[in-house]
Amino acid sequence: MIVRVSELVKLFRARDGGHEFAAVDNVSFELAAGETLGIVGESGCGKSTLARLLVGLLAPSSGVIEIDGRPLEAQQRDRRALARRVQMVFQDPAAALNPRLRVGDTLREVLSVHRLAAGGSEAERRVGELLEMVGLAASHGSRYPHELSGGQKQRVGIARALAVEPGVLVLDEPVSALDVSVRAQVMNLLAELRERLNLTYVFISHDLGMVRKISDRVAVMYLGRIVEAGDWLDVLDAPRHPYTRILADAVPTPDPAAEAGKLLRVAAGEVPNPAAPPPGCVFHPRCPLVEPICRTAEPRLLVTGGRSVACHVAQRAEQPVDAPVPGR
Amino acid sequence: MNGAGQPILLEIDALHVAAESRHRATPIVRGVTVSVREGETVCIVGETGSGKSMTMLAVMGLLPSPPMRVTSGAIRLRGRDLLQLGERELRSIRGREVAMIYQDPMSSLNPLLRVGEQVAEALEAHGVPRGEAYERTLELLGRVGIADPPRSAKSFPHEFSGGMRQRVMIGMALALSPRLLIADEPTTALDATIQQQIMALVRRMQDESGMTVVWITHDLGVVARLAQRVVVMYAGQVVEVGSVRRIFEAPEHPYTKGLLASLPRTTAERTRAPLAQIPGSPPEPASISAGCAFAPRCAHAFARCLEEAPPLEPRADGAAACWLGPGGTAP
Amino acid sequence: MTEVALALRPSLAEAERTRWWRTMSRSTSGILGLCLAAALALLVLASVSRLLPYDALAQHPADALQPPSWRYWFGTDQFGRDVFARTADATRLSFQVALLAIMLAALVGSAAGIVAGYVGGWVETAVVAAADILFAFPAILLALVVVTALGSGWFNTALAVAIVYTPIFARVARGPVLALRNREFVLAGRMLGFSQARLLLKHILPNVLPAIVVQVTLSLAWAILTESSLSFLGLGTQPPNASLGLMVSDATPLASIAWWTLVFPALLIVLAVLAINLLGDALRDVVDPTSYERR
Fold first, then answer.
1. How confident is the model at residue A194 (pLDDT cuts 50, 70, 90)?
2. Helix H segments across chain B?
3. Mean of the pLDDT values across residues C260-270?
4. A199-208 mean pLDDT
5. DSSP string, chain C
6. Residue C257 CA to its chain's centroid (Å)
7. pLDDT given for residue C281 in this prediction
8. Pick from B47, B200, B245: which is nearest to A179 by CB?
9. Per residue in A271-293, pLDDT tens?
10. Domains of chain C, first to last
């Protein structure tokens, strides 16, 4: 397993009240090299926090993250070693680049800090290679970010992440901020790079269509917890958790025939405040299948045949198989 | 279904809007002609630079001017040319006949005023007396699905979630029962389940009042779920118009085709085949080439496309602006 | 990016062609400021290089209190000193003090502000509190207190002004840093294992610089006025050295009989402040290569 996350918890202090709450609550999963895990969820579900935990920008409150067999260390001296194992691509391509640096200089800096290029000319060559790898011309290196389009900026962001040759990429909504007609280009680039460099992806998105396209497995998050996980087709087409069903239904697809009649089928309720989660199963106030036990006892993420669901009702319907390893 | 055969409510006729700075005028809306019938739900689809928002802001008379300015064209609401009206007349039309809701409800709600006050203000501005305005405010808040209207009315916008703020905006917009609601990407910043609620709310309000809705979006899923008719815009022009079924099943314009083809399939196929991509990016308004604006990215472009911009011509059940013949056949 | 901003951005080619000189020369205030600043610089240069016919300190008692003439362009004061030479020298001194003071303030204040904004925690609290305490004093009063403690003279005046204007730089520098430290490109740098020093110097500082430069131009004008006020009150520059404020102070009892001793120094104060403000406005447009939407 190239990525192993075990009982990961991240606590924050609430802005006003001062009491602690879990933005990520007991998340566990594993990924083999070359696999892609798609993570879906709405705001407050903790996917962005999870992304930052995975790349070491935040330190976990408890739990373990292992990449390439070694746990993450956030200390400065090992930051560089960590950087070469896992990198992130951000949602906002413009904010992800220093506006005062030319694109080539941004890449050169990464190479120089990590001593990946012996001298000026080798750095030049490597920068050119990186740019071409992401579908840009070497001449783009002399441009400033504001002179590039959104899609081009995102390609630079990908090039920068790959400059240190990581094995794992965390992609936090990589195409959401791009024009619709450009998204396919970047998605195709990501898929191609994955094949070429045998990368492992953690792909976070609210766009179920893109998640379907690129993921091998999918995990659905709600209020910091994984509520369902498994093969992408199973989870998205035959969901077992009521929230996954509601989410899959709520996301409109570009197919008028399939969409007919869906407009007035509405899920009630608001996404609750992560700082004040409901007791028992955190989804119970909005759940159409709610039962008394849901209000008091939080369901465990239980594995059955490669799928896991955290729902009392769903689990009762299955033949639960007690497997000690969550998530796989 | 509402729409077909109904009288035309809004008619945008060869509208041109330009952004004028000291040195040059950059065309933003380049000859847009669209008509919307009473009771219809029309979705305007476009990306950055398509001119979709500016077109609708022009309808409301709310173009950020300077630098934007309508340079030619007409906008007729039930026959009256809105561009010829003075500010006072426009003000009486805004809210009463046409209303608009925006993407970011936080910026359209005054953070320092209680929510109830703001909704009531919308009513009072159009002559509703104070007491009655408050009653109707509570009723409106209830209609748009806000819990406990008396208490909510006393709250401030920052105490509400994004979805609830958007409901308040809808309440304000619908306070005077306008005939036309323009929605400029109102759910883009909202979660999927909340987006679903808002879309359903607007449809419900529409069913109750027979209101016409023009919904601007870049999300083709929203279009598929909501629209009866679709207007596709690119680089400041309308490139295709048609019924929602026809647009998705048999698009005429290469841009529409390319856009639809580039979306991930929603089928159960297990394939790692790449998505069909359109090369390049949408052009910036200042650097639109001569001829068809989409030609640089079009796989079927030929000589004429680069020289002359194709006019919007009737096709199938709508229109398309492309030199290729119907069905994409060569001319 | 909104459609408005997109529309107003110059095309790629135009962006490359716009050099800073053209940006400056496009604004009339910039040109005016430049001309004024050039004239003042000439004046100071003439004084420093001793090209003027008369020395600022040389007295010609026989020619005391003469109105402006071809010989003495700005006339003479009660000691027969050439007012033009004195004014030129005073302008030099005023700028000297103001520049020294603001450079000090900018250096110390910005450093404190940047570190406070980036590191946060008790360091930030301490810096902000210190700045707030200094802000509580009216500028002139604080300068007076410092000068009284340190003693008068142009160098101490510069220190006093520096102390007065350090907190504003701390505040101005801290603001952008708060926004920047969570910007994705800074996070990316952290993720890539960049050292704190590299992030601060290479990534954060250059993006804070525009705000600092703007503040420098604003404060410079006030520094000149503060120095003039202190000298006017007798606590700044001491005679026989000339500063514009001191000249105005000396000239006040003579104003009714020798208007030139008052008007010219006062006029120079006004012109200096004006030049700085105009230049500052134009400089702002130049300093930030990414702020095209401001056009």
1. very high
2. 52-60, 87-93, 105-108, 115-124, 130-143, 149-153, 162-174, 192-209, 220-226, 244-249, 254-262, 303-307
3. 90
4. 93
5. --HHHHHHSPPHHHHHH--HHHHHHHSHHHHHHHHHHHHHHHHHHHHHTT-SSS-SS---GGGTTPPP-SSSTT-B-TT--BHHHHHHHHHHHHHHHHHHHHHHHHHHHHHHHHHHHHH-HHHHHHHHHHHHHHHHS-HHHHHHHHHHHH-SSHHHHHHHHHHHHHHHHHHHHHHHHHHHTTSHHHHHHHHTT--HHHIIIIIIHHHHHHHHHHHHHHHHHHHHHHHHHHHHTTSSS-TTS--HHHHHHHHGGGTTT-THHHHHHHHHHHHHHHHHHHHHHHHHHHH-TT-GGG-
6. 34
7. 78
8. B47
9. 778 888 888 898 988 888 888 88
10. 33-41+93-239+249-289 (1.10.3720.10)
Structure tokens at C269: 């104060």
The 3-state DSSP class for residue B229 equals strand
Cβ–Cβ contact A164 with C under 8 A: yes
Subunits with 3+ Cβ pairs within 8 Å of B are A, C
* H/E segment holding residue B216: strand B212-217
Contact A100 C290 (CB under 8 A): yes
Q: Do B48 and C11 touch (CB under 8 A)?
A: no
| The pLDDT of residue B4 | 63
Select the more confidently predicted residue: C17 or B304: B304
* ipTM of the complex as predicted: 0.86
- Quick one: average pLDDT of C190-208? 89
Domains of chain A: 3-85+166-317 (3.40.50.300), 101-156 (no CATH)
- Reported as a pLDDT band with limits 50, 70 and 90, residue C220 is very high
In tens, the pLDDT along A31-46 reads 999 999 999 999 888 9
Measured CA to CA, the distance from residue A104 to residue B28 in angstroms comes to 33
Q: Does C191 touch chain B (CB under 8 A)?
A: no
Which chain B residue's Cα is nearest to C295? B21
Q: Which of B187, B205, B266 is the mutation pick for testing A, counting most A CBs within 10 A?
A: B266
> Which position has the token pair 């990908």?
A158
- Per-residue pLDDT band for A320 (boundaries 50, 70, 90) equals very low
CA–CA separation, A267 vs A283, rounded Å?
A: 12
Domain residue spans in chain B? Answer: 105-177, 250-264+277-328
Cis before residue B150, ω within 30 degrees of 0?
no
Cβ A59 vs Cβ A91: under 8 Å = no
Q: Do B26 and C295 touch (CB under 8 A)?
A: no
pLDDT tens by residue, C30-52: 788 888 888 888 888 888 887 77
Interface test with C, best of A147, A164, A176, A179 (most C CBs within 10 A): A147
SS3 content of chain B, % helix, strand, coil (to 5): 35, 25, 40
Please indicate if any CB of chain B lies within 8 Å of the CB of C295.
Answer: yes
The strand pairing partners of A25, in sequence order, are A9
List the chains bordering chain A where 3 or more Cβ pairs fall under 8 Å: B, C
Q: Mean pLDDT for chain A?
A: 87
Do residues B213 and B199 lie in contact, with contact meaning Cβ atoms separated by under 8 Å?
no
pLDDT at B321: 92
Q: Does the structure show a pLDDT above 50 at C290?
A: no
Instruction: List the single residue in A151, A254, A263 with the smallest CB-CB distance to B220.
Output: A254
Per-residue pLDDT reduced to its tens digit, C81-140: 888 888 888 888 889 899 999 999 999 999 999 999 998 889 999 999 999 999 898 888
Supply C88's token pair: 């030129």
Q: Does C175 touch chain A (CB under 8 A)?
A: no
Closest-CA residue in chain B for C12?
B287
Indicate yes or no: CB of B67 within 8 angstroms of CB of C12.
no
CA distance B254 to A125: 38
- What is the per-residue pLDDT for B254? 93
